[in-house]
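Re: weekly structure request thread

Next one in the queue (308 aa):
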Amino acid sequence: MTQDNFSQVTEFILLGLSDTQELQFLFFTLFLLAYAMVLLGNLLIIVTVRADPKLSSPMYFLLCNLSFIDICYTSVTAPRVLVALLSGHKAIAFEGCITQLFFLHFVGSSEMFLLTVMAFDRYTAICRPLHYTAIMARRACWALVAACWVGGFIHSIVQTVLTLQLPFCGPNMIHSYFCDMLPVVRLACTDTTLTEWLMASNSGLISLGCFLVLVASYMLILAKVRACLYQGHWKALSTCASHVMVVTLLFMPCIFTYLRPAGTLPTNKYICVIYTTFSPMMNPLIYTLRSSEVKESMWRLWKRCRAS
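Done, posted below.
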């Protein structure tokens, strides 16, 4: 497939969430508040974990990386949406669209892999406590996080290459507020059945596979807790409850969106808001409200800042 086959389309038009002026102002306000909460909440977690030596366990190391990923993930779409809502300029260059698609899947799939690693961390801490220190050593944690990023890159580069092989020579209206695989593929001037199935197998099966691994780990944790009902295990189970909430917010919309070819059902752009904005916004609230150690560390950090 040569460059001339798809060079006729130089830009796409992102139709956004609504054409109504009043709703656009409302969406701008909501996206701005959500993006501000994502930045402030996740940055606060990163600073707190880095500043407090008591939060040096693998769980908080992984939580710090999750916060960094959430910032990157939301930053792929939110700034562009805010500019479009404020200025009314909905066009995005072809290269910019492909770049956004690449980083969306790169960071998004890395987050899925990281959540799976976090579930493995909780399983090891609860079900194999005597081996926890050896299994989740700092070098192993770094290797697992690096593997998440490498896996996300491989997944995303496959999606991007499949998209670039398609010819775009006609319609350029994307019925969404960001460039994603499914709405972009629908605009191709060729039969995309095979490409759609390949993409669904890639994105959808990754989402479903990670979700099933997570569910299995929670079932094992629940079985262990039921057999050993004492305070330490209930505390660990409480930590897992916050993880379950994050997983539900991220994985269920992704499975619904990606585990099907592009032409079978229309993409619900409002569902996309859940995993691109709402889930990263809720992560800091869920983890800090469910973790007394993080709240205490934040309070100590606040007192040190006031005293300095």
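Confidence is low (pLDDT under 50) at residues 1-6. The radius of gyration is 21 Å.
Next request, please.
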